Amino acid sequence: MMPASAQSGVPVKNALVVVNGQEDLILQSIIATGGSPSNVRNALETAELLSAFTPHVSTDAFGRFELNESLDPGIYNVTVFVPGFVASSNNIVVVDGTSAAKNLTIFMQPSAMVSGRITDEQGRPIPGIVVAASSPHSANYDITMDDGVFVLDTGLKTGQYDIYAFKPGIDIAILQNLLNNTELGSLQNKVPILFKTQDAGYISHVSEVQLEQGKLTTLNVQLKNSHAISGRVTDSAGNAVPDVAVFAFDSNGIMVDTAAITDSDGRYTLDNDLAPGEYTIIIPSLFSKEYAPASAAVTLPAENNTVNFTLHKSGTISGRVVEPNGNPVADATIFAMPKGLHVDDTQLALFLAAGTATAKTDQDGRFTLDSGISSGTYVVTASFGSVPVSSLIEVQAGSLANIVLDFGETITIRGKVTDSSSGRPIENASVVPSFASVIPSAELFAAKTGPHGAYELIIPIKDNSTRSLFDEVTVSADGYKSATVPSSAATVIRLDKMPATKITGVVIAQKPLSPPVETVLVRKGTVVFEHEGMQYGVGLQTNSRIVDAAFDPPSRSINISLEGVQDASGRSEFSIPKEFMAGPFAVSLDGTSAAEGVSTAENQTHAMITIEHEHDLQKITIQGTTAVPEFPLPAAIAAAGLAAILAWKRLRR
């Protein structure tokens, strides 16, 4: 029986229900800021890439949800994301390791709303600006279209908020390509923009606003033009050095939202998010193409904003790692850092500017560091093993570094982790020597299983007095009971699944007293589709939130993903250039052919399609009869990753 208070509300369909452990502080910080279901889903997908699985499910047409997951005992938060609303607090589930069902009724209340227009110094609207609540990395954000309008109307409780407005200036995809898919550990991806933006750069802006649930606050933001720094990168002979990355850091050592790649003539320009102040311009060793890193200081504004760099070939430090008896140590990790530079108390800017280098020893224990080495004295550290033994020495750049690691023998622990019922391998299980499993930083000593469930721990020990510490290992994996077993060679460890915890419930919304602001605001923009170097702009005017867009050449159709408030009216108008697609057109809404609510018109150059729909519609598909030019199959495959509205690519980004 539903409580009387619930009967007076409205069941919420397509609500995103997320269950996460209270100890997962990183994920909690992401979802605590609220946000639309699509943005939160993107954050969860990014978290899953980092092996942080978070159970989630959507409600059905009656607002009901059911989630069956094997959850470790503990306390979990149940958070619901619905456009236009904020979830009630204290939706907590205690999991005790049994299969006892947990039943919840979750009440949604109208969110506070903040909306406005982002303009430049001349008052012109700026497209492609990210507007985020609480943090630039928040999942609660919107992106302006051609008219500069933004709307934040989800997940905002009564209180004071920082509202950030900025143009993303770092394209992680380009940097990733520059490194040939090397992992980027120091960069955060800040919601890349894949639709029409301005070429100009702007200085980020933060506003403090007091918001109240159920009420609209208007916030118009004028962004100032960014200063610019440009220059040329050459080698010691004066030749241009193309394809190196240049970054800017402020006086606090924080990376500014701008980056540049040198062109074929070695030239670069940094022109986003540069306010007046002191900056360090850096070419770090990670992106310096085997040259030594370089840096320069600049204060803005300046009479001369030119910063040129002359790169010198990296120095070299080579050597050998052995154990006390002179036997080589293979696969040891080598790390070199300038003397006097300490990671803990050094700004990131100075750390990257000084340069560091890493390498692995070969089978003869030898190594060479030949990238990122400048002149001067370096501290070279060698470490080896899953529970590592390490040693360091000081050497001059260009010298030999022979390092002795103090251990007498190694213990090798290998095995495989499988599901006890199915026998299937368990990927990403953690295997830790039992003595270390109670240490807060136990993950530093852990081996992770691969796709076939295999693991290997190599442990250097000085003598037999410590061997017994490694007689057992503790194995854990999400959704499984942990096990402590002997660490004998070639062990197959079978883990039992935790009993599935059934969490069910219903999501009920209090109907807002007035139409959500999102339903009465009309936003205008251009969705840019690209094929074989040609760009086709489809005009779009809508009162819904655009989530994604894609073009499918074989079917000659475009798919627009939307997000909106339940029980409200939506309207979307498309202006499609005939050189891109031509009619007659067929329209479907959430996969169902739309016979009513669709009107078409055309002129010499464009076809206009107007669609009346429910505001919480999720997908519009428009299929043309012809496409100009016709797309052959190979080109269709290449066009599958065309320009869209927005996506969460990251790292996190």
CATH class of the domain at 523-624: Mainly Beta
Query: Would you identify the CATH architecture of the domain at 523-624?
Result: Sandwich
Give the strand content: 35-45%
Distance between the termini: 44 Å
Oligomer: single chain
Radius of gyration (CA) equals 29 Å
> What about the largest sheet?
5 strands, mixed
Globular, elongated, flat, extended or rod-shaped: what is the shape? globular
How many helical stretches?
7
The chain-level structural class is mainly beta
Q: In percent, how helical is the residue content?
A: under 10%
Mean pLDDT: 82
The CATH topology of the domain at 523-624 is what?
Answer: Immunoglobulin-like
Task: Explain how this protein is built.
The protein has 653 residues and is mainly beta. Among the domains are: 316-406, Immunoglobulin-like (Sandwich), CATH 2.60.40; 410-497, Sandwich (Immunoglobulin-like), CATH 2.60.40.1120; 523-624, Immunoglobulin-like. 7% of the residues lie in helices and 43% in strands. The chain has seven helices and 50 strands. β39 (523-531) and β40 (534-542) form a beta hairpin. It starts with a helix and ends in a 15-residue tail after the last helix. Mean pLDDT is 82; it is low at 1-7, 181-194 and 631-653.
